[in-house]
Amino acid sequence: MDPIHLEPVDEVAITILVDNVYDALLGGDERTRRAPFSVGAEPAPHFEEGESFVGLVAEHGFSALVTIKRLGHTSSLLFDTGLSPTGMVVNADRLGVRFDDLQAVVLSHGHFDHAGGLAGLAGRRRASTMPMLVHPEVWTRRRVVLPGSEMQPFPTVSKKALRQEGFDVVERRVPSLLLDESVLITGEVDRTTEFERGMPPSHQAWTGERWAHDAKIIDDQALVVNLRGHGLVVLTGCGHAGAVNIVRHALRLTQVDRLHALVGGLHLSGPAFEPIIPPTITALAQFAPSLVVPGHCTGWRAQHALAAALASAWVPSSSGTSLHLESTPA
């Protein structure tokens, strides 16, 4: 594929609306802002004051609001929507995030823990049509079959329901440029590493005739921004294509020679993926990123290993964390 010119941006902000963890005691710095200890109050009659503080929702899912600033103009899109119909919008309300100026929604892939919040979003935008960019295989029926356990079907995203709710669904296998060509959605990611082999045989998809091993989750795609003077900022949902494959793919597509930041799920949790933690970290370290914020399905073993190997770059994720990255002044 010919190189894609990705317009550099002056600023990018990634607000993590939903993640597996909410830690109200995490500290911030010049580029990392954390939600306050209390983001509101609710009635609680067993306290003298009649109310108690509330925090943010943490659930096994992921959602991020991406805002870019270029040539004085600011625009934003939503990347994934979390697990539950309410979690993302509850957190958005408590953080003071509004969806009024949202220009698009992107689904990283069709798993329900990234699409569950679409119902809540639709409830906030009944009066308007919202562009939604997805891979054509996002509608695939999937299930998990573990030895000695009952078959677990996954909820399947409905194209018909989304269109009825006002979403303007756009299906693309190839890369797409959004927000005045300043945000790249990778489309299908080239699989080039030897160790990132995808899901185990227990993960299956319906082919139309039978259930078959779905290793690749071919609809997996990432979001990429080119931060002027620094390099690429790569945002993943689960990173089913492999974190290293995704970074290589983004660098190759854009012909930008540096990875500045990697944010999102890296899917290194559990016995099927923990063996590839060492080669993944070795490869990521060669990119020398300035910021690594792994979340969601990364797993605690990989988090510990990343924190040790990339100590100056690693930052813990949490619902409510906002990353603010700025370009180098000319």
TrEMBL record:
Q: Which InterPro entries does this entry report, sorted A to Z?
A: DHPS-like_MBL-fold, Metallo-B-lactamas, Metallo-beta-lactamase_dom, RibonucZ/Hydroxyglut_hydro
Q: Which residues form the Metallo-beta-lactamase domain?
A: 67-152
Taxonomic superkingdom: Bacteria
Q: What is this protein called?
A: MBL fold metallo-hydrolase
The organism is Streptomyces gibsoniae
Q: Could you read off the lineage of the organism from its UniProt record?
A: Bacteria, Bacillati, Actinomycetota, Actinomycetes, Kitasatosporales
